[in-house]
Amino acid sequence: MVLPEGMSPVSSPPARDATLDIAKALAIILIVVGHVWRALEPAGLVQDPLLTQVDGVIYMAHLSVFAFAAGLFVAGGMRRDGPWHYARARTVTFLWLYTLWSTLQLLMKIAVGSVVNDPVSPVELLRIWEPKEQFWFFGWLTLMMLLAAAARPWISRRAAAVTLGAAAVGSLAVWGLNWNVLGGEGLALTVFFFAGVVLTGRRLLGWMQGLRVVPVLLVLVVGGAVWVVLGATLLGTPPTAYGSLRTVSSVALGVVGSSAGVVAVLAVSWLLARRSAGMRWLAWIGERSLVVFVAHVFFTASTRIALSAVGVDSLGVHVVVPTLAGVVGPLVLYVVALRLRQDWVFEAPRWLRRLTRADRSPAPRP
Q1: Which domain holds residue 59?
Q2: DSSP string covering 315-331, please?
Q3: Where do transmembrane segments lie in this chain (predicted)?
Q4: Is 365 a member of any domain?
Q5: Global pTM?
Q6: How many domains in the chain?
């Protein structure tokens, strides 16, 4: 696969324990829950204040975890392959997945018509520059790869400080705001991505080796409480939502809440990773988080429609069952695609990589 190592659906980087894979698994499950939860409002199954409270908690941190994880192994990959080759290879796959899966998702909605919560017009297929639902993340990732290749924050401490400072200023300026153009959504996540690039996965995992259970539990409790309180009350603005409500103080508290969420997820992931035998299944999901990300809406939406068709109106059932379908369904599809040797479903096909020179072997680098 030619994805950032922090998001690969196939395998983990060498010398990495299960902590980061579990963190990605928890984040992707929260993403699925978030989309399931938001779909319940048009269906009349949940209303404010519960709707906004849960939504605020989820959106305060889940994408920040993904952004941080996506950056952790970029520096190593760019040193190994060369910055622009690495960026080009990832960009080709990101834009392929964006085009393929956003088209498929739109076709599904067009086919079922008014059965879905937000019917779309066929003309949406032509507006490829307007990101469709969750697929804006690929435009953001493409932009991050290009910025990382240009900035190269790993070459010196000064470069790292300047890059991280610029990312922080830029993220604060657009915190909670989005623009409906490819690459224009999620820009507040930039600081988390570059925090991962500067920190690096190897350094983070090495530091985690020396941790002890009691301090990690304390960090989990404090970080989790800050995350939940600031998210549920919306005293803090989430990085990618509720921008119309943002103020200077809500942005500052949003940074605190989102950062606390990332730390809390890493803490619980570290604790779960210590139970390595029992948590292997969760790490396996995390390794294939991108598979779940691109395909989960097909399974969550169809499950919700089926539940409604048979008269189920229990809020709990409408949360749990579509979430399970949204996680398990894409993984089954992934296994089937591998068995049938149809890997183009989840990565750029070979002909496209050859055409763009995205799969050529880079020259050895010192």
Answers
A1: 5-355
A2: HHHHHHHHHHHHHHHHH
A3: 57-75, 95-115, 135-152, 159-177, 183-201, 213-236, 248-273, 285-307, 319-340
A4: no
A5: 0.90
A6: 1
